[in-house]
Amino acid sequence: MGNATTPMEYRRLGRSGLKVSVLSLGSWVTFGPQLDTGLATECIAAAGEAGVNFFDNAESYSGGESERIMGNAFSELKWPRHRYVVSTKFFWGLNDEVNMRNTLNRKYLVQAVDSSLERLGLDFVDIAYCHRPDPETPIEETAWAMSDMVSAGKALYWGTSEWSADEIRAAWEVAERHHLHKPVVEQPQYNLLEREKVEREYARLYEDIGIGLTVWSPLASGLLTGKYLDGVPAQSRASLPGYEWLRGQLTNPRGNEKVRALKAISDELGCTLAQLSLAWCTKNPNVSTVITGASRVDQVLENMKALEVASLLDDSVMARIDQATRPK
Prior knowledge:
Structural class: alpha/beta
Shape: globular
Order of helices and strands: EEEHEHEHEHEHEHHEHHHEHHH
CATH architecture of the domain at 10-219 and 284-296: Alpha-Beta Barrel
Number of helices: 13
Strand content: 5-15%
Number of strands: 10
Strand order of the largest sheet: 3-4-5-6-7-8-9-10
């Protein structure tokens, strides 16, 4: 891999007019447990320098701390507000009261957005997501509350995360019927080992309602870096307290067998397995942006090199990658 840097590509968020960098930076896991404001600011600055304009967050990340850290970073960098796109997500809540946990009811959403904006130190977020579906609140109530959030100028766009195609369509149809602001984006997990939702279940949504995708976990929580091929390294995410559930997933022999096959391809292309995996996600035209994570500046820079790798993924390489990852 040479030193020539490929310029950042910007894609529309679905059918909306908003453009986001094809690689973006998220704060899940890292902002809080692994990063303080200083390091987070350095990572955000490095990403911004590489052309990243979308920064993803959520109310529940580190119990609100992640939003606070990101807000402090923005104010320290003194970036003008027009320069970046920032998102947050609502569902799990931070208070134990009955209407404030695991819900998308109107009371919670109206209060949650104000608290998030205060932590971020912003007047509005660009995108507000419903972080999970809520089977106990009518989709109509949620769609009205999210549309009102946009009308109030507290969010510019709204979307969903990890909703089923049916739920997304139902929300969209409520909005269509009542002339509300429609959901324009979904944030699903998507990577070489997790393809079903994005490639099959949502297939009709892109054409029918023009939904955009901001995909998370492009490296399958680190499995697609290859660093778990020989067990769990001491400083890794899977060694963090509270992330024990990841351990089994990362040391799964069948997953690691696919990782070995992919590593052979990345070695041949002269890139890292992580860069190959990120580049592969960007090849899907329905993906608006791939959310990367980093706990160090050099990781941010390494991830950005995936832009160069994407140009190496021609049809024959894509077919080989497919072969290596298809369920046996």
